[in-house]
């Protein structure tokens, strides 16, 4: 079947002079102007130029383990169905019937033999071919009415889609850099232990900015900082923390040599959060206390380790992608996060916990223990971004200065965002 794509062409996307001026006049090293967080018009531009033109993380492949399993993902007005076909290949299609536009799959996840429109029963196979369309006449060509494909990439079990007609070509570079880090965790041999969606009453960029720094962690995240060192997330030496940061850097160096030399686990930082289309950062970092996992006591949450691991204290591999995800890979489980804008001031955050496919709840892991740290952290972060959103509405708001010691990755996210808007507005 000839694949077809729905285009979101940057050259045809017009923005108002006001938005163009906001983008052009953004002051480096400072937070964004208020309209970036509250304007419906800026939100529409974000959906067309950021979420509509870049690789968006949507799922892990273990969410659809068997042929016929599917999930649906909503990105603003676009619904996409991601399905595993009969040959175990994973495909993505616009979740729209080619007849009169009915949504095809109306649940978040499920399993089907074929994809059947609930309106008039047009039937598509798992490769998107139209198999059945009754009462359409002899001149009707089924081969020209298959489902519209969506570009999909699989990065070691992490699934990304792009709605654009021509997706960014640098994904292959991202994949080549990241697969050696991710593949040892063997996502394809995991299962979903829990998945929780929360809605934050804030702009999506505040959600991402909050994730890109740990300046706030010690004061707000007692559960998370029981296991993680906040210094691993953008801290630079300052007069107040230089000695402690030097000690931490030495710990990172020693553990990285151990993980890389003894276990073949890449650990050093790769940081491309700005200056490229598909921005990302990764690093394997040591954990505090027992150093095993992101739990309240920093011990493993699941006795069944991932992949071929025989050792629990392998730190936590962190991966961030622009514009919508972050991930934590440990020896015993993985926690992965997606950010989906709902409106200018509402954002959905989906958190998924993965364990080994053979791990048994109540035997190998306790679900409350597995999810305790990030359930608490997500709720704390929700409060922080929501009070930020409220404050930005004030007439007194002016973009504040980012800390050069703790918020460099926030600045890199904003720089990437402005770079991408500028490039696509001017395309």
Strand order of the largest sheet: 11-17-16-15-14-13-12
Residues in β-strands, percent: 15-25%
CATH domain fold name of the largest domain: Naphthalene 1,2-dioxygenase Alpha Subunit, Chain A, domain 1
Q: Sketch the topology as an H/E string, one letter per element.
A: HHHEEEEEEEEEEHEHHHEEEEEEHH
Helix and strand content put the structural class at alpha+beta
Distance between the termini: 31 Å
CATH class of the largest domain: Alpha Beta
In CATH terms, what is the architecture of the largest domain?
Alpha-Beta Complex
Oligomer: single chain
Cofactor: Fe cation
InterPro entries: Rieske_2Fe-2S, Rieske_2Fe-2S_sf, Ring_hydroxy_dOase_asu_C_dom, Rng_hydr_dOase-A
Domain Rieske: 56-161
Protein name: Rieske 2Fe-2S family protein
Fill in the keyword field for this structure.
alpha+beta; single chain; about 25% helix; seven-stranded antiparallel sheet; Naphthalene 1,2-dioxygenase Alpha Subunit, Chain A, domain 1; Rieske Iron-sulfur Protein
Characterise this structure.
- This is Rieske 2Fe-2S family protein.
- It holds the Pfam family Ring_hydroxyl_A.
- With 427 residues, this protein is an alpha+beta fold.
- Helices cover 26% and strands 23% of the residues.
- A hairpin with a 2-residue loop joins strand 2 (69-75) and strand 3 (78-84).
- The chain is globular.
- Mean pLDDT is 95; it is low at 1-12.
Entry summary:
The chain has 427 residues and is of the alpha+beta class.
